[in-house]
Amino acid sequence: MKKIYLLSLICFLCLISCKNDEKIESVETESSFVNFNIDAVPYAKLSTYMFFTGDLKNLQPNGKVVPYEPASALFTDYALKKRFIWMPGGVKATYDTDDKILNFPLGTVLIKHFYYNTIQPGNTTKIIETRLMIKKSTGWIFAEYLWNDAQTEAELVTGSDFTSGSSKNITFKKETGENITTDYRIPSETECLACHKLDNKPIPIGVKPQNLNVSYNYQSGIKNQLQKLVEEGYLQSYPSNIVSTVNYKDTSKPLDIRLRSYLDINCAHCHQDNARCDYRAIRLSFNQTSNLSKLGVCVMADEPINPSLERIITPGNPAKSVMHFRLSSVNESNRMPLLGRTIVHDEGVELLQQWISSLNQTCP
């Protein structure tokens, strides 16, 4: 009885603290102390949700806040990422197809932190931003939080006062030992929608079965991520024959599968039907790119750049391929992806270069 009383007291104090901060009624949810009122979110402060225990900067997830990681990660100026899923009690996501996001219930929150652990000087760790996608009755909404320099709190900046986004000057060290200085871009809500848009509605990108059907090292041990969601009560079921993407860094995998996985996570959300770049000639979703023409092989460029770049992919010749040119550029008029990066992803460009060089077919 004492233990039950003590637990109840802790819950009560936590909820009162959050209520004082937001002036709203908090909602206690099944077997976790997450503070979530779907009619009141997004909150002004990240800490109010109580997704994490202890010092906020440690990102130690609270009960039922489940970490996840797609097989291949979206490149964002070499930022590291920590991702989590939380759902209210009594609801579950369902499987649709391998290449469509899970059908998440109302109240689902997808949490994504962007940070560096080699900020100069001193190789310090610094969280730059946290992005939430929250599923409300009207659909998915964005909530962008900027961290303070003390790393004690992240404040909400999404909304009418943040229409142009912002930038943060940072210097970090790459794995190669090279120091990089850049103006890290923190997107506006409009910029978020540019990439997270399908049928003119906001939608998540990475939480597809094809991307989650890989193992993750949880505190309790290594487990398939979809199976973990089933065990947590977050997913009803999933098929055993999912055609999955791979980690593009894994050189034990076939070169073409690595390249297709890279393009899927970095480019396919725009280069698909009813998305931002649906007018382009290529379709880069993993389930389509076994067809080389979808990747742009021997396909004439749909807009002129210069006479030497006639085709999106010229087999055996990266220097005459539009895709290689765009991935190698930082010019806002030429680079791809257009948003999400200010510097070149050297490893991604090298992967594309290797793949183009391996092609030996002749274009008509």
From TrEMBL:
It comes from the Bacteria. This is Uncharacterized protein.
